[in-house]
Design goal:
By secondary structure, the protein is mainly alpha-helical. It has four helices and two strands, in the order αααββα. It has a two-stranded antiparallel sheet with strand order 1-2. Strand 1 and strand 2 form a beta hairpin. The longest helix is centred in the last third of the chain and has 26 residues.
């Protein structure tokens, strides 16, 4: 599948490695995309084009980056796994008969 102009624009400004991630607001400013469209574009890059984009969600240096090594990968996976766990807990509570 070929990348759209929007996807290509976003992908080209995301830095490689987690040392200097780019903030979502900076991506929006450089591309002219809204926050929601930027997030959707990154999700599409990951799911449709298999781009290895990680995100740092907490701390001083938050933002997006291209996964470069195992440490970057673990940094990207840790919060996703925690989020999935929290979502499963919510689903279990909602599905319970109490």
């Amino acid at each position: 599948m070929e990348m759209s102009e929007k996807e290509n624009a976003v992908l080209t400004i995301i830095p490689t490695g987690s040392e200097k991630p780019i903030k979502g607001a900076t991506i929006c400013a450089k591309t002219g995309l809204s926050k929601r469209v930027m997030q959707e574009t990154i999700a599409n890059l990951i799911t449709k084009h298999h781009a290895k984009i990680g995100a740092i969600r907490k701390g001083k240096e938050t933002g997006y980056y291209i996964v470069q090594n195992k440490a970057d990968l673990e940094m990207a996976l840790r919060p996703l796994r925690a989020q999935v766990k929290r979502m499963e807990e919510r689903i279990n509570i909602l599905e319970s008969e109490k």
